[in-house]
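Minutes, methods subgroup
Present: GH (chair), OT, SY

1. OT presented the first of two proteins processed in the latest run. Sequence and structure tokens recorded below as shown on screen.
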Amino acid sequence: MENQKPVLLILAAGMGSRYGGLKQMDGFGPYGETIIDYSIYDALHVGFEKVVFVIRKSFAEAFKDRINRHWAGKAEFEYVYQELDNLPEPFVCPKERLKPWGTGHAVWVAKDAINGPFAVINADDFYGRNAMKILYDFLSGGSLNYAVVAYPLINTLSDYGAVNRGICKISGENKLVSVLECKNIYKYPEIYFNHNDHKHILNPETPVSMNMWGFQSNYFGWAESFFRNFLQNHINESGAEFYIPELIQNLIDSKNIEVDVLHSSSTWIGVTYKEDKPMVEKAFTDMIQAGIYPEKL
């Protein structure tokens, strides 16, 4: 089945709590283009023909309408839902649970929509066309490995508050050795995060995962097993989340998979806080003026 054309999976179910709204629906281009619009434009440009969106039912109608108005007929689109009660049987979501189950859950809910190699990106992150191309080419090349696109930490931070990043350790063969989900990384007065009441300083060039992954279809079997174990142990912990890096680390340590690290010349652009928006708008304006994108997609 892995000789199928790669599918692009866009995680667009986020709550946007730090941003103060649905980043995935906000406009950043001159005609109100979303970050998703630029990602779809790049994806179609490099060869993707099917896009699966992970969304929530609460904004599904508006989201689908917007995609159809801009992109109908240009690719195959499918929608799956990341809802709190979408769990493997026999697990039942606790009534008091309010927090989503995490990025690992977001990918897992797409299990019935994808049966070949696939790329994963966030809806509110712009990865760049070169990154999209090298990931598409990797997934089209017949490798059974997974892949992650890494970016220098300094290029992924916000001036307006803390961010969460997957810190990568890479072998000499350009394989992923470890990926650690680090929360609340600050840019000032130096790049650091706190853990167990200790301040950890980070090198600005540290490679980080921005949740741009390349997976094979066997990912879903591994994810199901890991998620069941996670729920068995943490279902009643209101803040517990199933993160993609935790599963990947488990699979690396157990030698079930190898993960190739892909380095891109693209510049990552993203929004964590509302104050980040003018910077993102300027970045798209600059790329339009440079001829990378048309003024109106």
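2. SY then presented the second protein from the same run.
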Amino acid sequence: MKDSSIWIEKHRPKKFEDIIGQENIVKRIKAFVDSKNIPHLLLAGPPGVGKSTLALVIAKELFGEYWMGNFVELNASSERGINVIREDVKNFARTKSIGNVPFKIILLDEADSLTRDAQQALRRTMERYSNTCRFILSANYSSKILDPIQSRCTIFRFKPLEKESINKIVDRICKEEKLKVDDNAREALIYVSSGDARRLENFMQSCSMISNKITEDLVYEIVSAARPKEVKEILELAVDGKFANAKEKLLDVMLKHGLSGMDIVKQIQAEIWNLKIPDGRKIELIDKCGEIEFRMVEGSDEFLQLESLIVNFMKNDKT
């Protein structure tokens, strides 16, 4: 199975019981669906945690065989202007539904990408056509949604998937695709996916193209990420005052895995909490990582900034 979109669609949950890691949200929304009535919904949270999937399940459970005629999905990041709201959304919202449910559903995926003017138009459309249409807004950052729209919605906040939930998804995919994943590989998949089920499935698919037995080495080779222990070794060398060794190890890791400065800073930030240094120093170093990342975004030389970061790790309580 070479197409990642086909792979993800194959493993997408088809009913409420299949959605893993968001049980409390699913339970509340299922109560709305069982009553054959839902309010406007705002699903907020990081990518890959089940927001769009839940919207599809809602439509299928509500409308049954007529769900495709009563449901439309628009990606607001690519169709973000006011004309989309005035034309496509309004034309769909004003028509009656098919079947015994009195309203249709419009899913606006990545609604936080809508322009301010488009959101103002959406605000009025939601109010005017509430009898014939319900809106489900999916957003990574709910703060970018205008307050008048938020006040018209019931808000559900999703969280990144926890280790137990990721393991359940891995188990399900291994059973369906006849894959073998050892314990170290599981830990690697949990680490690199960062609670994102979509990212997890993409990594597993890429690994399965090479071998049906997924190992830790294969995961890191596919993902092109440094192992946590490699990053921790760099930081421990710096904390011990071995600047030259830390710099050499950092360059070696970046070249070995093909990492950019932004990539390695994010991994460094995650490993700071595992260092044996005072908590106050950890907070200072986290703050420094943010400053270094900002400088890189603004166009500063990556390796020079990383050397500066290493120097800050050497400023420990022993010096």
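Chair's summary of item 2: The chain has three domains: 22-157, 163-223, 228-314.
Next meeting: continue with the remaining queue.
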